Write a sequence for this structure.
């Protein structure tokens, strides 16, 4: 007898990556969803307005003038232009989403690689005295800074400027005002660290300077040989490069000329559609126009949401979960390193 297949509706992710994976089974088919993750809220106004405009055209054509209809052949020529513009918008927006996700993976991978290399290499050579408390504290501090870089990247991409002169204040100044920061984030930052975001220095870049300084100290302590230290610097450079590309996505919107023309073309197409359908369909033109407007404005709304994928929307990158998963992984490595150091054994 063949083994039964698992019920995927009740599947749960494994513990690693648990925060960035979906954990709730879908209770309703996606075709019946109109709230969470859908774009209906941002397209309802244009759909209703076009439907009401169609009601007006049908009424005038049926009861007043009787000659408002246009040849239906006008629709294919306009639909080609609308289709091309929507395809360009969605492809561009999803490319920004996909690139942002890959850059976040690059940053997380660099943090994992550097944490692994630091913990394995921060040890005394055979026959040498064990690490001093200062050296162990230095390594623990730098691992926490590595994790803090992930939080700093996340907050800066959301325009949540999060490093006041005193991190102990626990406040973040963002576009929405002052909000309470997560305690675990500030616990990762070194004591006495002063931010310079008001002078134009991003906290992620400031923290990478501390990482580079640790690599230099490790080389001077003979923890790293030259090629290994060079490779670690490459990892830091890759992290900064990925963050720069995410900044480019965040600060470079779709050109306003394209957005204006796209809105105008969409409105023009849906305003012409009632005139091209009123003679053949009568009052049925109202639901037809509503469906077409729902489809076209929905596609445009998806592109608008994916344009900036670093926020809190349901369709944005799950940055909170991804950062939390990486934090948990690296902290487990750090705690194991601390435990093996207390027992006098090596962590490798």
């Amino acid at each position: 007898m063949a083994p039964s297949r698992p019920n995927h509706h009740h599947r749960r992710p494994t513990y690693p990556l648990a925060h960035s994976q979906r954990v709730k089974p879908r209770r309703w088919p996606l075709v019946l969803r109109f709230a969470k993750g859908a774009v209906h809220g941002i397209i309802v106004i244009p759909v209703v307005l076009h439907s009401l405009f169609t009601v007006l055209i049908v009424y005038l054509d049926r009861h007043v003038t009787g000659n408002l209809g246009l040849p239906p052949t006008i629709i294919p020529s306009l639909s080609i232009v609308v289709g091309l513009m929507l395809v360009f918008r969605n492809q561009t927006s999803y490319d920004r989403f996909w690139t942002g996700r890959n850059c976040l993976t690059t940053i997380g991978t660099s943090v994992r690689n550097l944490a692994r290399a630091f913990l394995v290499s921060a040890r005394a050579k055979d026959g040498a005295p064990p690490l001093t408390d200062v050296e162990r504290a230095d390594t623990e501090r730098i691992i926490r800074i590595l994790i803090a870089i992930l939080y700093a990247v996340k907050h800066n991409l959301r325009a949540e400027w999060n490093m006041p002169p005193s991190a102990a204040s626990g406040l973040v100044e963002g576009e929405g005002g002052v909000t309470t920061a997560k305690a675990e984030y500030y616990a990762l930052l070194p004591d006495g660290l002063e931010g310079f975001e008001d002078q134009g220095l991003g906290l992620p870049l400031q923290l990478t300077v501390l990482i580079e300084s640790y690599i230099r100290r490790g080389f001077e302590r003979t923890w790293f040989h030259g090629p290994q230290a060079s490779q670690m610097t490459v990892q830091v450079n890759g992290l900064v490069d990925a963050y720069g590309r995410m900044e480019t996505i965040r600060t470079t919107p779709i050109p306003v000329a394209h957005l204006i023309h796209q809105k105008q073309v969409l409105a023009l197409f849906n305003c012409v559609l009632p005139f091209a359908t009123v003679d053949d369909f009568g009052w049925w033109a109202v639901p037809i126009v509503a469906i077409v407007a729902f489809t076209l404005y929905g596609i445009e709304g998806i592109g608008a949401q994916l344009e900036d994928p670093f926020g809190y929307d349901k369709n944005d990158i799950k940055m909170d979960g991804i950062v939390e998963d990486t934090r948990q992984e690296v902290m487990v490595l750090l705690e194991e390193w601390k435990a093996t150091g207390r027992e006098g054994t090596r962590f490798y």
In short: The two ends are 45 Å apart (CA to CA). The longest strand covers residues 171-174. The beta strands are 160-161, 171-174, 177-180.
